[in-house]
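Provenance and format

Records in this collection were gathered into a single text stream. Each protein contributes a sequence line and a token line. The two records reproduced below are adjacent in the stream.
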Amino acid sequence: MSTPPMFGSVVPLDREAHKKLHLRTDLSTVDKVKELNSMFLTTVEFSEACKEFPIVFVRAGEAPKDGGKQAVAPLAVLGLKPGHNLFVEDGRWTANYAPAYVRRYPFMMAHIDDQGNMALCIDDQWAGFSETEGQALFAANGEATEFLVNAKNFVESYERETERTRAACHELVELGILQDMRFESTNEAGNKVDVDGFMTVDEKKLAELDDATVVRLHRNGLLALLEMHRLSLGNMARLAQLQLARKD
């Protein structure tokens, strides 16, 4: 079982092994993301995320050995240098929107076998877990509490949106309308920041799509997603100024 960024030790939640487990919801998870300069974003989040973060695409997973096209995934850009999250300041999350990736923590759905079965898992290294304090995960009879049911519903919904995002990105790859891009910015003092390794929509190729494809993209919502992606790129310059103003 792979361990995604932010998580420490991912283990399946077990009603017997974890029957006494509680979760303190008063503890901030900000320290978990202060060194993440990007975060996976589902397409349903684009409308809120585009107001604050640049939304870009990156190649995901390994390149197919058969010469096929490599998958891509959307990311919210949080910083322009490795280990720098510009939306964490003095232990606080400063953006108005927090991606679902971080809001689901310390829960996640994960594959538990080679057959593709999934289970609700937790980061059992999270300091918020206790046997005496916080919200109980299981009732005395071993049934999930309302708190745990709500948490499970959220991560299951997140997983469904993740699958929809993969499907949307697959279509973008098949259309061939993404291009490698590089961003550079220099302030008045001559300090420079540059970022590469990401992809954006190719305006020329998008404009060359035939009418039938454009109508299909409009009806399935992809055209709107691409527009939000394009608008979000205006946030890159703002991040550059924040990055250049940082002393670290």
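Adjacent record:
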Amino acid sequence: MKHSLEVNGIRKRDSIWSRRRPMLLLGLALGLVIVPLAQALITLLVSVLAPAVGVGLFRRAVEHWTQHGGPAALITQVVLTAVILTGIATAAAVASGFGLCLPSVKRARRLGDYRILRRLDSGGVGDVFLAQHARMCRPAAIKVLRASEASDPSGLARFEREIQLASDLTHPNTIEILDYGRERENTFFYAMEYLAGMNIQNLVDRFGPLASERCIHILMQVCGSLSEAHARRIVHRDVKPGNIFLTDRGGMYDFVKVLDFGMSKKMGSRADPTLTQPGIVFGTPSYIAPESVLKPESVDVRADIYGLGAAAYFMLTGRPPFASTSVIEVLADHIRSVPTPPSRVAELAIAPELERIVLRCLEKNPDDRFRDAGELRAALRRISLDEPWTGEKAAEWWTIHVGREDLEAFGRVGSRKRIRAA
């Protein structure tokens, strides 16, 4: 986004560099073009209007320059003045851009200790921005609760619950919450680690279905994140391709981060009337478990197993298990229809053991699925592959399809460069 942003009445400015370039160009234009032209115009006007203004003034000017070097001295003076003014204008532009005068920094909006740089995404209850810690210069993704949600007790409660539950999880494959705060005008926000890469939804949409070995590699990491949550009796309730993000950590590519615990639920906790209302279904229709539609209050960790199975189906085939155009029809399919085995609709060969695991995850009866993410992970680990997906293969894939330099530039704070595929 090239222009300033409005969120909850707070104006967010772009990065300093986005304002530095026009200021530099303006300084150079003033020095190299406008100033000499202005001086030439003034000289012309004086020579033309001299008779009207007074011949004496013009004669005194001619006598002055005749005594001090003649026309050559006049030209030298004009050029020297232009160079000096050019330097002053350019220095002012550079100083302003780099923060010596700091007009951009002063105008840039902050949330707590974070300076907003640009918008990254928009979600159901808030917007996500790229930001930088004012003192540590550490990048972060800032999620800001929309004003309409902040004024709604249930929206604010869901926002705070997401922070509380996610910040209690420490698995390396779970998004890390860094900070939480409230600014004036009831602006609620939290800071989380900034990730460079793309989610599974974008990956498959742009590059097609994944090979079985890569799918297993990703599923194993998702199970690691969910295993910790399930051990603490936390149900994510919105496991889907868009919430499975691939990034790199210290040169480890295809490193998974599970996002968005905004719909999560703590099993056994007392129901909060501001969070649980009759007729409300939590989840994304294409990846929602049948019991989440029929009896949302009875949902447990096995609903996440169903969602992960549906996400795996998408990874392998490029489409969700049920692809009706109507949301009502999709929900009805989850309740009563048996999904087509992924091997029948996939472009790539699928490991038979993996297909059986995916179909077991998609069983209608929760008792017929894996008990939790830990049990699912153990089943995935038992799959025998001729050529497992490795870190070297992941690095090669990202280098070929995205480019290592592009990925690094995409992750650099304030950079305008985008991954070509993202």
